[in-house]
Amino acid sequence: MVILKRGCSILFYVQNHNRHPVLKMGDIQLIGEITNTFPLNFEISALLLDSDDRILDTEPVSQKILPCKSDGSASHTPLKLELIAKEGTDMTKLAKIKVSFEITSRNVSGIPITEESYIQAKLGVNLPKGITLSNQE
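^ that's the sequence the OP posted. Answer follows.
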């Protein structure tokens, strides 16, 4: 049985294994590809959170995800979400990235949702302005 009400969210934790404090970090790009076999339109969005789950102030961003093809086979949507910090946002406090999938509408008529239906995300993070770490522990 497939239970999918409105969507789902996934948390990714940002860890600094070098134990060097982050001095400066700019905008973040969430890149990749979404594979969808559901006959549903989805919208993907992302929020940046600090260690206390407070939202870091960025420009709102989302992208539409294509439903499965009319024959029920998987669709592939290239992904590029640019999380641009608003003026005064301290990006060094980033601890988590919350990625959410929301169902926006049913699109492909006549295609059933089955137990084999899935949505798969292959994700990566790009730091176009780089990151500056302290050389002290």
